[in-house]
Amino acid sequence: MARTILAVDDSKSIRDMIKLTLAPLGYRVVEGDNGQSGIEVFKREPVSLVITDLNMPVMNGFEFIRALRGMPKGAGVPIIMLTTESKPEAKAEGKAAGATGWITKPFTPENLISVAKRLAG
Amino acid sequence: MTTDLSAAVETFVQEAREQLEGLEAMLLDLETGTDRDRVDAIFRVLHTVKGSGSMFGFGALARFTHHFEDAFDGVREGRMQIDNRLIDVSLRARDHMTALLDCGGDNPEAARLEASDEAASLLATLAAIMGKGPASAESKSSPARAALPQREVVFRRWSIRFHPDAAALRNGMRPDLLMAELAALGEAEIRLDASELPVLAELDPERSYLAWDIILATAQPRDAIEAIFLFADDAALEITEIFQETQETADTVPTVPTQQPKAQKTAVVPQEPPAARVPQANAGSSENVRVPAGKLDDIMDQLGELVIAQARLHQIAAATKNADLESIVEEVERLVTGLRDATLSVRMLPIESVFGKFRRVVRDLSVELGKDVALAVEGGETELDKTVIDRLSEPLVHMIRNSMDHGLEDAARRQASGKPARGKVTLSARQEGGEVLISIEDDGAGLDTDAICKRAIERGLLAADAQPNPAEIHQMIFAPGFSTASTLSSVSGRGVGMDAVRSAVEALRGQTEIVTVPGRGTRVTLRLPVTLAIIDGFLVRLGQSVFVIPLAAVEECVEFEEAERGRESGRTMLQLREHLVPFLDLDEVFSRPRSTEARRRVVIVKADGQRLGLVVDDILGQNQTVIKTLSIYHRHIAGLAGATILGDGAVALIIDVATLARRARVAQRQIA
Fold first, then answer.
1. Which of A32, B109, B411, B631 is the most buried (most CB within 10 A)?
2. How many A-B residue pairs are in contact by the CB < 8 A criterion?
3. Is B349-529 in CATH node 3.30.565.10?
4. Which CATH class is domain B153-247+255-259?
C-alpha cells in the first residue's frame, strides 16, 4: 500500500508542492490547512509521516504536534516541521513538542524527497 | 530528479494575490483598533508570501516582504508599536509586493522593481519607524553551510557512534532508515550496541535503549554524513575520520571528533487531551477546490447548449403526445434547471471582494482631496456572477471618485448647512429578483440641476429652448463628453466620465438610475443581472420572427389601441392610465415592413428609471434564454443585445432595452 504523508499548511501552494514532489514517488499525500483539520485527517488516515507548518490560523503547528503526540495513534509517527531561518528558536520549541525533525523554508523538492525517504521509508 | 512545480507556482501566485488583497483590508482595519488576532493574521500573510515566494522563484518579493514580516513580528512581540506611519508604509509596501508578484517571478522587471527608488524609500521609511539604521536591501540570507575545503579525496573511512535520545522512537525517529541511508553512502559495517537493554520486566517499549557503531567507507564529505543525522541532534553522535587517502596531500586538516551540540533534553510532557483545548474549527475549510475560471466558462457553455437541446426535446415530446416520453422530458427539464442553478451558483462571488478595495480608494482620496470621508458598506455578502464583479470594479471606483470630488462639499460648507463635517459615502448591494442593485450614495449637496442644464446646452446635448424635466436633466451627466466640474480636478477629471460608467454597466446588460435631493445628497444605482449567461426571456412576435425581451425589464403588457394607431405617425406617446408613456414600434426600429395585423400589443418596459412601450404583433410567453453573442457583422446594430436559439431550432434576437429607451428620448427631444 502506498505510504500516506499528511501535509499540513495553510498555504495551498506549499501543500501542492509537497504533493507534486512526493506523489510521483508513490506516496499518497493527504492535506490539512491548519492543525485542527490536520488532526481530523490524521484520525482517519493511516499516516506514515506528518509534515507541518508552524504558523497557521486556528491551531498552530506546535499545538498540532503536541495534540498528535497526545493521541495513542500519534506516538512514533515521524513529524517534520517546516521552519524558517528567521526563527531558529522555533526548532527547539517544536522538538520539545515532539517533532522528529525540521525542514527549513525555502526548501527544494530534493530536500523533501530525502526527508520523506528517511522517515517514511 | 526534477519535479515539475509549475502547477504549484500557479497556485502560489493566485494565493499570494488573494492574500495581498486581504492584507489591504487587514491593514486598514488596524486604523480602527489593533488586537492580537489582527496582527497575527497580517504577520501570517507576510510570512507566507515571503516563505512561499522564495520557494517558487519570487526571490525579490521574498526579500522585500521579509522586512515587513520582521516589523510585524516585532509588533507581535511588543517590540514595536502600530501607528499611522507603519500602516501607511505597509499599505504602500503591499502595492509594491503586488507589483513584484505581477512580474511573474525573478526576471529583469522584478530586479528593476527591487532596485527602484520606491523600494528603497519604503525600506528606508520602515527602518526609520523601526528605529534602525537604513535597512540593507539584501535579506538575511541563510548562513551558508560552511563548505568544507574540497580536496580530491578518493575515499575516507569514518567511525560513527550513534546513540539516540531515550525519547527518539516516541518522536518518530527511524534508526532503520537512517542506517539504510548511511549504507547507501558507501560501504558500511553496522554493529548494534544493545548493552543498555534492560530485562524484559523493566523494558519500556517506547523508550530507546540502543546504540550503533558504524564503520563507513565513502567518498562523500562529512557534510553528507551529518545531513543524515540532521534530525537526530538530541542523540549523542560521534563522527571520526579514521583513514583517508587523497591524491593531493594538502595541508591535512586535523579531524576532530564531532560532538553535536546537545539540544535541551526535554521529555515529552503528557498533554491534556487535545479535544479539550482545541477551538471549534471551521470544518470543511480544506474541502475547497480551486478551479480556473475558464473551466467554469466551458461548463456554462455546455450547459447553455443543454438548455437549448432540452427546449427542443420539450417541443418534440409535446407534439408526439406520448405520456411516457412527456414525463421523462419533464424530469429532464427539472434536472436541467437544477443543474443550471447549481452551475450558476458556482460562478457567484460575494461582492465584498470588490467592495473591499474601495476602503483604500476612499482613504487615499480623502487625503488627496482634503475631505474627511467615512465609507459605509452594506450588503457585501450579496452574490454576483464573477464576470460582472470583475468588470464592475473600474466603474465603481469612478463613481466613488465622483461622489467624493463633486458630491461631497468641503467641511466648512457642510457645517454651514448644518451637516456633520465628516462626509459619508455609502456603498450598498442587494438582490431584487434576477437583479442585483448596487448603490453609491453620498450625503453631499445633490446635483446642481441648473449647472447641468447650462452645461448640456453649451455642449449641444440639449436644445437651448428645451424644457426637460429634472429627471431628464440628471440623465445628462451620463452623456458622452459631459463634465460639470468647471475646473478639471486630478481626481475625477480623467477623461472618462459617467458615460464610461454607463457603457460599462450596459455592456453587462445593466442599467443606471440616479436620484438626487438638493442639499441632501445623490444616489446612483446600478441594476445588474445576477448572471450574464442565461436569463429569463419574454418572447414576442413580429411578423414571422421571434424576439426576446429580458423579463427583468418587463413591467406589463397592454393592448395597442386602434385609436392610438390612427395617430401613430403624429405621436409617440401612449396614454397608459393617467400617464403618458413614449413608445416605439419595433417594426420601425428594425426597419421591417409595417405590420398589417389587426390586434397588436404593447410591452411596457422600464429602462434607466423611465418607462417605454414596445409595440409588437403578439406575445408568446417566457423561456430560458441562453445568450449568444452576435457575429462581428451584426454586433454594431443598435438595439440588439444578442441572440438565442429557441426550442424549434429557430434563432431569436434579444432586444437591448436600454439603447431603445435612449433612442426614444432622443426622438422626443427632436419632436419637442
1. A32
2. 158
3. yes
4. alpha beta
